[in-house]
Amino acid sequence: MLGLPRIALQDVVLGDVTVHKGQAVLPALSEANRDPAVFTDPDRFAPERP
Q1: Does residue 38 lie within any of the structural domains?
Q2: Domain count of the chain?
Q3: Rg value, the chain, Cα
Q4: Could you tell me the pTM of the whole model?
């Protein structure tokens, strides 16, 4: 499962894209906790990771 669609309740900027109120987005949950700026080893499977 990739994720459940979310509907924007207000305009929001994500990176260089604006999601307008009422538009749907489909988050890629498989990409969660993979930001190398936040996690030391983002590609390592770590179920204890917060």
Answers
A1: no
A2: 1
A3: 14
A4: 0.57
